[in-house]
C-alpha cells in the first residue's frame, strides 16, 4: 500500500468533514508573491543525547523540515562525566549560550538512574536563565523527577515527533511581552475546527469561545477559508496563538498554506498550521509551510495541541514571580531545639520509634514556622486535663503524646467529641492504659485540644529524596491522600507560583473549590513547610501534617495531626 494512502484515525475523522476542493477554489486568493530575497531562517534546535539513539531524532528532524544547529552525545551523562563527551549539564549549558539556538531538544536514557538529579537541575537552570526552552524525551522517572522537570520549566514529551514539534514551536515563538491570550482555533472545515477545539480544551488550554468572532472555525461562515479571513483571524487581537487545520487537498490546500504564511508575516500572533493530508508530500506542506520560519507546521492535531500546551506552559514559567516564604532565622533555631529534645521519649519495642517526635513536639515545630494548630494544652494528670478542657472550651479532642508514634489516630490513641469533665477523666485514664498496652513506656502526657469543625481535610508533608534532597508533597484527603495517589510534589526550593500550581495539579481540587476552601492559605502553608524542609533537611527524614484542615475562604488552615521521623545517625 502506498505511504500516501495510510491515514491515522485522527486524520480519518477530519477527512469525513473535508469539503470537495473544487467547492473552495473560487474563494482561495492567489498565492502571495514570493520575495526575491530568501526568507530568514528560523532559530535552529540543538540536540543533546545520553543514549544510543542520536540518529532517530536527526532523521525525524530532516523529515519534519526542522533545522538542527548541532548535536552532542554525552555518553552515560553521569555526574562524574563517565561518558566519552561532556556531561549532560555541560552540553545544555553550552548550547544555551550558543548563537542561533532557539531551543534545546534532549533524548535521555533512564532519567532516574543514568542522569544525576542535580545535573538535571543545573541543566534546566542554565537553559531557563538563557531563555532557551529545554524539551526532554526520557525513559524512566518517577513523581519526584516529574516534579523537578515541571518546576524547572522543562517540557517532557512522549515521542521523537513530539520532541521536535515542541522544540521547533518554542524556538520559533519566543516569549511574548505579556501573558498570552487564549488559543484561537480555526480550520477550512467546521468539523476539523470542532475536533481541534475539543482536543485543546481537554489539554487544559484556554480556548477562544466559538462565538468570540464571526469567523471562528473558518469553515463555518459563508466566506470562510479565504485569504482575507485567514489574515483577519491572525490580526484580530486577543489571541495568544492561532491554530489552523488544513484539511483540503491539491491547489486549494496549497493556496491556503500560502495565505497562512502571508498572515504570519504580517501578524505578531504565533500561527501553527496542521497539515491533515495523509501524504505530507504535497507542495503546500513541503515547499510552503515547512520552508516558512514564521509558521510552526504539524502533521497531526494531537501534536499541535501538545506543542501549544508546551508554549503556554513555557510562557507561564517565564512570567512567574518568585516569592519564597521569608527566611526566619529564629524559627530555625527554635526548631532545632525542639528536635534535640525529641530524641528520647517513648520506648517501644520498635527501636525506630525513638527517632521521632511526639505530637506535642510536632505541634511546637509547626507553631515555630507560623503554622496554626488548635488551642491545646499538654497535661499529665486527669485533674489538669479537666481544667485544660474547661479553659479551651468543649467539645475537645484528647490525644496521647508519644515520641516516635507515626499517628495517634492510627494507633487508636485519639478521642474526639469530649463534652464533659467526667468524659475527660475517663478518657485520660483510658489513653494512658492503652498506650501502656501497646508497649510504650513513659508518655509526654495527653494533649487536650480544641475540636475544629468544618473545612476540608488535606495533607502536607516532607519527603527526603536521595537524589534531590527534601521534597514537599500536598494532597486532598488527609492521611489517605498518598494512598489514593492524588498528590503533587515539588523539590525545595520553589516559589509561591509553584506552590499554587501544585494545588492545580490535584484531581480532587474541586472538593476544595466547591467548599469555598481558603486555597491561598493552603498554598502559604505549603511554602512554610518548605521553609522547614530547607532549614532541617539534614536532620528531618519525614514530616506529615495529616490532616491539615482547610477552612472557608479567609479562615486559613489548622494542623490537626502531625508526625515526624529523624534521620538515623
- Counted by DSSP, the helix tally is 20
Q: How far apart are the first and last residues' alpha carbons, in Å?
A: 67 Å
Radius of gyration: 29 Å
How much helix, percentage-wise, in residues? 25-40%
What structural category characterises the helix and strand content? Answer: alpha/beta
Strand content: 15-25%
Summarize model confidence as the mean pLDDT: 81
The biggest beta sheet reads: 6 strands, antiparallel
Q: How would you describe the shape?
A: elongated
Regions with little confidence, pLDDT below 50 for 5+ residues: 1-39, 77-83, 210-225, 343-354
Number of strands: 19
Task: Describe the fold and architecture.
- It is a single chain.
- This protein is an alpha/beta fold.
- Helices cover 38% and strands 20% of the residues.
- It is built from 20 helices and 19 strands.
- The chain has helices at residues 9-15, 22-25, 55-64, 88-96, 117-129, 143-151, 160-172, 190-202, 227-235, 250-266, 283-289, 301-318, 329-340, 359-368, 382-392, 421-437, 481-484, 496-504, 509-514, 519-535; strands spanning 44-49, 68-73, 101-108, 134-138, 155-157, 183-187, 241-246, 271-275, 295-298, 376-379, 396-401, 414-418, 445-450, 456-465, 469-476, 487-491, 540-550, 557-559, 562-566.
- The strands form 4 sheets. Strands 14, 15, 16, 17, 18 and 19 form a 6-stranded antiparallel beta sheet that branches. Strands 2-1-3-4-5 form a 5-stranded parallel beta sheet, sandwiched between helices. The protein has a 4-stranded parallel beta sheet with strand order 6-7-8-9, sandwiched between helices.
- Helix 10 (250-266) links the parallel strand 7 (241-246) and strand 8.
- Helix 18 packs across helix 20.
- The radius of gyration is 29 Å and the shape is elongated.
- It starts with 8 loop residues before the first helix and ends with a strand.
- The relative contact order is 0.09.
Amino acid at each position: 500500500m502506498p505511504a500516501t494512502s495510510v491515514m491515522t484515525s485522527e486524520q480519518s475523522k477530519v477527512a469525513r468533514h473535508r469539503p470537495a476542493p473544487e467547492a473552495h477554489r473560487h474563494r482561495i486568493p492567489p498565492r502571495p508573491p514570493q520575495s526575491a530575497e530568501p526568507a530568514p531562517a528560523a532559530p535552529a534546535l540543538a540536540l543533546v543525547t545520553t543514549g544510543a539513539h542520536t540518529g532517530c531524532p536527526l532523521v525525524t528532524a530532516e523529515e519534519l523540515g526542522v533545522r538542527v544547529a548541532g548535536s552532542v552525545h554525552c555518553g552515560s551523562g553521569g555526574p562524574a562525566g563517565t561518558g566519552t563527551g561532556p556531561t549532560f549539564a555541560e552540553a545544555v549549558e553550552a548550547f544555551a549560550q550558543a548563537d542561533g539556538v532557539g531551543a534545546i531538544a534532549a533524548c535521555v536514557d533512564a532519567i532516574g538512574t543514568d542522569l544525576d538529579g542535580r545535573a538535571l537541575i543545573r541543566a534546566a537552570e542554565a537553559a531557563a536563565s538563557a531563555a532557551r526552552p529545554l524539551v526532554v524525551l526520557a525513559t524512566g522517572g518517577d513523581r519526584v523527577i516529574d516534579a523537578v522537570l515541571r518546576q524547572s520549566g522543562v517540557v517532557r514529551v512522549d515521542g521523537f515527533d513530539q520532541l521536535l514539534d515542541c522544540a521547533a514551536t518554542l524556538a520559533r515563538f519566543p516569549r511574548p511581552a505579556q501573558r498570552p491570550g487564549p488559543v484561537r482555533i480555526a480550520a477550512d472545515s467546521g468539523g476539523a475546527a470542532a475536533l481541534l477545539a475539543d482536543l485543546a480544551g481537554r489539554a487544559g488550554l484556554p480556548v477562544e469561545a466559538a462565538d468570540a468572532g464571526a469567523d471562528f472555525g473558518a469553515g463555518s461562515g459563508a466566506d470562510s477559508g479565504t485569504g482575507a479571513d485567514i489574515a483577519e483571524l491572525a490580526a484580530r487581537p486577543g489571541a495568544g496563538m492561532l491554530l489552523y487545520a488544513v484539511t483540503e487537498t491539491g491547489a486549494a490546500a496549497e493556496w491556503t498554506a500560502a495565505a497562512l504564511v502571508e498572515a504570519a508575516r504580517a501578524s505578531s500572533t504565533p500561527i501553527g498550521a496542521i497539515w491533515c493530508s495523509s501524504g505530507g508530500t504535497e507542495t503546500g506542506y513541503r515547499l510552503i509551510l515547512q520552508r516558512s520560519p514564521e509558521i510552526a507546521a504539524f502533521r497531526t492535531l494531537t501534536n499541535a495541541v501538545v506543542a501549544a500546551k508546551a508554549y503556554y506552559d513555557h510562557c507561564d514559567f517565564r512570567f512567574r514571580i518568585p516569592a519564597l516564604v521569608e527566611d526566619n532565622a529564629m524559627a530555625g533555631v527554635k526548631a532545632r531545639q525542639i528536635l534535640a529534645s525529641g530524641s528520647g521519649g517513648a520506648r517501644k519495642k520498635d527501636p525506630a520509634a525513638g527517632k521521632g517526635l511526639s505530637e506535642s513536639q510536632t505541634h511546637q515545630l509547626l507553631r515555630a514556622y507560623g503554622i496554626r494548630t488548635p488551642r491545646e494544652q499538654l497535661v499529665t494528670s486527669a485533674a489538669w486535663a479537666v481544667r485544660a478542657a474547661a479553659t479551651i472550651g468543649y467539645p475537645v479532642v484528647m490525644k496521647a503524646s508519644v515520641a516516635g508514634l507515626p499517628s495517634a489516630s492510627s494507633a487508636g490513641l485519639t478521642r474526639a467529641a469530649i463534652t464533659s469533665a467526667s468524659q475527660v477523666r475517663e478518657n485520660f485514664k483510658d489513653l494512658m492504659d492503652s498506650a501502656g498496652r501497646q508497649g510504650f513506656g513513659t508518655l509526654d502526657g495527653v494533649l487536650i485540644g480544641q475540636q475544629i469543625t468544618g473545612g476540608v481535610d488535606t495533607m502536607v508533608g516532607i519527603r527526603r529524596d536521595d537524589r534531590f534532597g527534601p521534597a514537599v508533597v500536598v494532597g486532598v484527603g488527609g492521611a489517605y491522600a498518598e494512598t489514593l495517589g492524588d498528590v503533587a510534589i515539588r523539590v525545595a526550593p520553589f516559589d509561591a507560583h509553584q506552590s499554587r500550581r501544585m494545588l492545580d495539579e490535584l484531581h480532587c481540587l474541586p472538593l476544595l473549590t466547591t467548599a469555598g476552601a481558603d486555597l491561598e492559605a493552603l498554598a502559604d502553608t505549603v511554602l512554610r513547610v518548605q521553609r522547614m524542609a530547607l532549614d532541617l533537611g539534614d536532620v528531618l527524614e519525614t514530616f506529615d501534617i495529616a490532616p491539615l484542615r482547610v477552612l472557608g475562604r479567609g479562615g486559613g488552615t489548622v494542623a490537626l495531626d502531625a508526625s515526624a521521623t529523624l534521620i538515623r545517625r
